[in-house]
Amino acid sequence: MFAAENGLKGDPRLEAISAAIRVVPNFPKKGIMFQDITTLLLDHKAFKHTIDIFVDRYKDMQISVVAGVEARGFLFGPSIALAIGAKFIPLRKPGKLPGKVISESYELEYGHDRLEMHVGAVEPRERVIIIDDLVATGGTLSAAMSLLESQGAEVVECACVIGLPEVKGQHKLKGKPLYVLVEPSGLDEFC
Amino acid sequence: MQTIIISPLVSHRLCLARAVPCNRLLNNHHRAPPSIRLSNHRSTTSLRLFSSAAASRDSEMATEDVQDPRIAKIASSIRVIPDFPKPGIMFQDITTLLLDTEAFKDTIALFVDRYKDKGISVVAGVEARGFIFGPPIALAIGAKFVPMRKPKKLPGKVISEEYSLEYGTDTIEMHVGAVEPGERAIIIDDLIATGGTLAAAIRLLERVGVKIVECACVIELPELKGKEKLGETSLFVLVKSAA
Questions:
Q1: Based on the number of CB atoms within 10 Å of its own CB, is B1 exposed (0-12), middle (13-18) or buried (19 or more)?
Q2: Which of A83, B119, B149, B240 is least crowded, fewest Cβ atoms below 10 Å from its Cβ?
Q3: Could you give a single Gene Ontology term from the biological process aspect (chain A)?
Q4: Which residues of A are known to be catalytic?
């Protein structure tokens, strides 16, 4: 669900966050309006608002794990984890994590990719949120969920700064709630 | 979608429930310095680890004369994985530090205490593990966070800097306009080994007129002499470890 539909309607912080995100047309290929969050990271106030909104939502939900998807999930996840007293678990591309891992494959537009997590990072019945900068089809987040659930963890919610139109109206991803702050900027001419 | 379990090539110390203290802390002037014969992962020459006093002069640690009590916990929370990514390398795995909420909090606090109120407006972090430590520090000290990335990841106009690897070269990139001339920056990464990546990051920022106040890492591998590559820029680390 979008934050505006879930208690934050009219919250000026959401507008500041949205305004701070830069749209780069035709990256990585023609036709894609890339949502660039690096400009959000340059705006200290807006970046802080982003983290504060997630922290306010999750701090009293007994979340013991924040899992972040490489690499842009790493930009948001750790700050949230630190503020709510949770562990941070990086979910990485193949071959990056040095210890024993479990792996889940997921579909791309052409072909597939894999996501890995260290064995033992999460314990059964831990309550987890998964963070990424943006959700489009939900393929990556679904793979992340599978990794965590295979270890007996409970995925409480997936959270992203930006949610593409495909997910609007969908409050759930694979049966789990999805929480998104803003819609993409600059899509008007494409819809 | 299939869940696959993959074992690493070698892994002797897989304790995630309990961190294995594998790092040597070179911070006590009063103890006799350890003389340790170590094998360098690049050659078969054994190196004698230099004395703790010399180590303190070469790069500053978070411990001056008295060790900060938080350092030992941070050091012991880092897992060492032998022979990753290839034989001979003792990989310093900070993912176990991130699982220890107190150690991770203390790590950030140590950097924040050092850099707040120093007029630092930019925290630059090197992909990908610099992305884990940099943003919390930036948020706490009121600075921007600037990601420095491998080629073709950043969507906008970039400037690039090439640097040498053992075999070949690599490149890091930064968005044009992310920083302005005259800004004061720190550069963050989880670990400094040979110093190649950090040196490239320094060059990239200096090309656009930024003053690098310091490079800051959780871990240093002193035998690899990465500090020498940083030129005039000082280095601050929390933990030193054998390569």
A1: middle
A2: B119
A3: purine ribonucleoside salvage
A4: 72, 109
The string of DSSP codes covering B30-88 is TSPPP--EEE-TTSS-EEEPPPHHHHHHHSEES-SSS--HHHHHHHHT-EEEET-SSTT
How far is A105 from A147, CA to CA, in rounded Å? 10
**Token pair recorded at residue B71:** 């350092």
As a whole number, mean pLDDT of residues B46-61 equals 42
Nearest to A36 by CA among A44, A46, A25: A25
Confidence band for B62, pLDDT divided at 50, 70 and 90: low
Rounded to whole angstroms, the Cα distance separating B205 from A147 reads: 38
End-to-end CA distance of chain B: 38
pLDDT value at residue A175: 83
- pLDDT band at residue B243 under the 50/70/90 scheme: confident
Please, what are the domains in chain B? Answer: 119-240 (3.40.50.2020)
Q: B150 and B172 in contact (C-beta within 8 Å)?
A: yes
Token pair for residue A89?
């678990």
Residues of A in contact with B138 (CB under 8 A): 41, 44, 47
Residues A65 and A71: their CA atoms lie apart, in Å, by 17
Percent of chain B with pLDDT over 70: 74
Tokens 């049966």, residue?
A175
Share of chain A above pLDDT 70, in %: 95
CB contact (8 A) between residue B99 and residue A89: yes
Tokens representing residue B236 in the block? 């601050």
**Mean pLDDT across B96-110:** 98
CA A114 to chain centroid: 17
Task: Give strand pairing partners of B48.
Answer: B37
pLDDT of residue A6: 74
Q: How far apart are CA A89 and CA A70, in angstroms?
A: 10
Q: Which domains does chain A have, with CATH numbers?
A: 3-190 (3.40.50.2020)
How many angstroms away from the CA of B168 is the closest CA of chain A? Answer: 20
Nearest beta carbon to residue A87 from set B79, B81, B99: B99
- Assess: ipTM above 0.90: yes
